[in-house]
Amino acid sequence: MLEKLFDPASVAVIGASRTEGKVGRAVLDNLLESYSGRIIPINPKADEILGLPCYPTILDAPGGAELAVIVVPAVLVPDALEKCGLAGVKNVVVISAGFKEAGIEGSKLERRCAEIVKERGMRMVGPNCLGIIDTESGLNASFAASMAKKGNIAMMSQSGAICTSTLDWADARGVGFSKFISLGNKADLSENDFLLEMEDDENTAVIAAYLEGVKDGPKFMEIAREVSRKKPVIVIKSGRTAVGSRAVSSHTGTLAGSDEAYNAAFSQCNVIRADSVEQLMDYIRAFSSQPIPDGRNIAIITNAGGLGILTADACQFAGLSLSSFNEDTIGKLRGKLPPAASLYNPVDVLGDARPDIYGFAIETILDDPNVDGVILLTSPQAMTEIKSIAEVVADKCAHTKKPILCSFVGGTRIEEGEAILNRHHIPNYPFPERAVASMAALCDYGVMKEHEYVLPEKFDVDKEFVSSLLRDAISNGRRTLGLESFDILRAYGIPVVETLNVKTLQGALDACENMGYPVVMKILSADISHKTDVGGVRIGLENADDVERAYLTMMSDVRRYMPHAVVSGVQVQKMITGGKEVIIGMNRDVQFGPLLMFGLGGTYVEVLKDVSFSVAPVGVDVLKKMVSSIRTYPILTGVRGESSSDIASIVDTLCRVSQLVSDFPEILEFEINPLMVLPEGQGCVAMDIRLTLGGE
Length: 696
Description:
Blueprint: H1 3-6, E1 10-14, H2 23-34, E2 38-42, E3 48-49, E4 52-53, E5 67-70, H3 77-86, E6 91-94, H4 104-119, E7 123-125, E8 131-134, E9 139-142, E10 150-157, H5 160-173, E11 177-182, H6 191-199, E12 206-211, H7 217-227, E13 233-237, H8 251-255, H9 258-268, E14 272-274, H10 277-289, E15 297-302, H11 305-317, E16 321-322, H12 327-336, E17 347-348, H13 355-366, E18 373-378, H14 386-397, E19 404-408, H15 415-423, H16 432-448, H17 463-475, E20 480-481, H18 486-491, E21 499-502, H19 505-515, E22 519-524, E23 537-541, H20 544-561, E24 569-574, E25 580-589, E26 593-600, H21 605-608, E27 611-615, H22 620-628, H23 633-637, H24 647-663, E28 667-677, E29 684-686, E30 689-693
Parallel strand pairs: 1-2, 1-5, 5-6, 6-7, 10-11, 10-12, 12-13, 13-14, 15-16, 15-17, 15-18, 18-19
Antiparallel strand pairs: 3-4, 8-9, 8-11, 20-30, 21-24, 22-23, 22-24, 25-26, 25-28, 26-27, 28-29, 28-30
Helix pairs in contact: 3-4, 6-7, 10-16, 11-16, 12-13, 13-14, 14-15, 19-20, 22-24
Keywords: ATP-binding, Ligase, Nucleotide-binding
EC number: 6.2.1.13
Domain ATP-grasp: 486-522
């Protein structure tokens, strides 16, 4: 799709410069260093640059170019793009800055550039980027300080500084790349386009990205879900503490920051999330050089007991299991290792272990079918032959299909050994915890790539009824709907408590007599988000006297706390007992769309913050995981002799809510709180609802 972007026969540098230190000169120097195709400098003030014929415009260059790199002031970029289009150039990299990152005028300029590119049938990287690198073709169309080493990692980044720092870090460790892409402002080409490009790139085995946001969230999920089945996709996402600019009033809106949406989206499309630049680098080293393990059973080999214990602890925290060796393995270790050595996992070969002892232990443990991977630790003690041990590790790595990650812990004493490991592309981590985290990522991906995507279930619902109800509400200027909108839930097959809406005390008394006691009474007001906070809920009303007293007190409390709230009456509900309260909510995320939330319900949800998230529409497998992932899930399964709650009914309700909020993008926020979940087999009942609507 973008072959000529990364492997062009000719490259024009529009804004090439004679002056050292200028970006236009740096791009030209980089191309001359490694690229074998035709290089065409464009500069109206020069006849030649660095021995190459120079032309006033791309239209004057004989034969044109397959790729143009634009390095001119922002105001001149639209004209340069127009000329590229007329010259038949199909791919451009706009390095120039001064676009949307510079303010309103820059944004207008960027939009104009995007329009020109679309009109002329071109594809554009940037603007405001470092450029691109392809090690297979030798293309270095960037102003990076050096060319990347050849390897199997494709890296894209929205930050030019992250690009240059990563290249320098990788150069010191012998880590190579297939492609390096500075995304810039993503006015045209984005992470989605490059994911598709790298999916079938035979030179790429691992895809890594630094992202500050995604251009099209649902499309990103769709593409990443497919790509990650073939190759690991590792992403670090910055801006984790950002909150939405729109004011929110529901529990879901309060708890659902943008980072929760990214976590949910990445999990659902099998993207591995790195929490720091350091972790991103750690992960790509492991994935680029080591096989994916078949399971999560890990063996630890160490010459220092303390390091072994710390690593075992880290494995437990990371969700890895310590392998249980079979008797044959134990027997072989016992026959060769010193009597004081620990034969069980972690295997402590002792501080004076020679390289051949390390080699024997590695080989024996790798042969055990209960071992899926090895973490090898080395402490530089006086008798430790670091260099020779590293050579032994390199030899064993070359003859196994199981991952080996090393942690030679130290400084100057381990430098020679680390250099040998780097030369053989064996990851070495300065501390064991980082090796464990990388091994856990390898194991996680082994599960992810085998996961089958389950399509969201589609229910037979009365969509037209809900559409009509919401359309009427919007046309009448009603943006918030509460208890009076229970019919929306009924239309989507979600059970609701027996209710009656009334406007007067006498109406409440009559309703209670018809319904039967005990009852619950709730204030009816679209202006009141949290009824309990203003005295707008009364439970356990056993007779007419209770109802009258509750009604009068409730009205008094609400007038005192919210004197300007419009009260339309009260809702009387049949009181449901013997269940657990949960909350189901939705907040429409600006990047990914409807973000579902689940947790224990009631008044403490914002304090406990024990909730989980998924991006709708979503399949039943993800929703089951969503329910079981909260910390308090054991309360739903039954503790201390309690019966289990009807978890299947929770999942069913989530499925129906997923369809509802996907069907109606005008629903900005939605919440059932509480959903009363009865004992297993008895279902669940929605007790309260609130939703916020956007415009037509």
